[in-house]
Amino acid sequence: MRPASAHLPRRAAAPPPGPLTAWLHRRHGPVNGAVTFDRRHLYILPTRSGAGFAVLLMAMLMTALNYNISLGFALTFLLAGIGMACMWMAYRNLLDLAVSAGTASPAFVGDAAVFALNVDNADTGARIGVEARTPLSDVAAPATLTLDGESRGTLPLRVPAAARGRLALPRVTLSSGFPFGMFRVWSYADLPLSTFVYPAPEPNAPPLPLVARPDDAEDGTLAVASDDGIDQLRRYRTGDPLHRIAWKHSARTGHWLSRTGYSPRQPGCWLDWDALPPGMDTEARLSRLCAWVLAAGEEIDIGLRLPGIELPPAQGAAHRRACLEALALWPARRAP
User: Fold this and answer.
1) Is the N-terminal amide bond of 331 cis, ω within 30° of 0?
2) 306 located within any domain
3) Which of 93, 129, 255, 314 is most solvent-facing, going by the fewest CB within 10 Å?
């Protein structure tokens, strides 16, 4: 007896792409860090305006033939020559442009990540109205750039950040409709550029879970107000120079104190996944932790504990960025 699965019709395999589709969508990656739009990678087609202009020329030609109007022939051929010149200028506007990857700024979920593309024009002629867009970009508002001869510019591409994680720059389409919009010239660039998408910070998040530091009898520091502002004081150590002794505060407290010259250290805190309310889902936890990382700034020591990841307390822009990246990539990146 044949199994039931043998009677089920087999799903037909998807037909392979045709040669024209495969040729149009072949990858155009960078060579020596840049994508150059040579003649083999530029495509041109008439727009609706160009097609309407061609229909108008045909009507003018047929009218001139019917009525044998010499001025009609002259005007038709003049306009046809102008159209051919526009086609060449549109094609020339993108020819031999070089595009390379620039910087990429991180974003939060719901915002837009900005990818910077460096565009080099080695020719002496100007490049006018060069547009760039991706399949995820807003079609109504593409990034536009105009370059003088032998100059360089930057095209900022805004790509929506819909989900946290690593966002790679999609295929970029650079196009131009210069001079009169009768022809559209375009090409593709596949650039290895990516950035991080952080979780959306929770609005109106609770205050930071600060942890008070215990005072160390020998090495602990105290922030004490003085006439000159804030003095960072600690217990006197043998060998401290006399000019660093805080005589007024020593007499007031009954202990020898020395000035350290360092700025007051803020209390630290642990941002712990397991300390959050048990009813919160994954994305809500990550959003609250992200809001706390941003609220801590660069002056408060923070440590981050996620399932499988632990970042010890530290401060500064680099540590805050490491915490945000851990939140963006969790659970893809765990400690081994």
Assistant:
1) yes
2) yes
3) 255
pLDDT given for residue 219 in this prediction: 43
Angle (deg, nearest 10), helices 70-94 and 48-67: 160
Q: What is the domain range of residue 227?
A: 221-259
* Cβ proximity of 128 and 140 under 8 Å: no
The label of the residue with tokens 């867009």 reads 133
Q: Per the structure, how many domains does the chain have?
A: 3
Model pLDDT, residue 151: 94
User: Backbone phi, then psi, for 235, in 5-degree steps?
Assistant: -60, 145
Both 160 and 188 in a single domain?
yes
Rounded-to-integer distance, Cα 175 and Cα 185, Å: 5
| 249 in the same domain as 280 | no
Exposure string (b/e) for 120-136, b if CB count within 10 Å is 16 or more?
Answer: bbeeeeebbebbbbbeb
* DSSP at 253: H
Measured between alpha carbons, how far is 313 from 95 in angstroms, rounded to an integer?
Answer: 53
Phi, psi of 295 (to 5 degrees): -70, -30
| pTM attached to this predicted model | 0.73
Q: How far lies 44's CA from each of 34, 109, 141, 146, 159, in Å?
A: 22, 37, 21, 20, 26
Low pLDDT (below 50) residues in the chain:
1-14, 213-230, 263, 335-336
C-alpha radius of gyration, the chain, whole number: 33
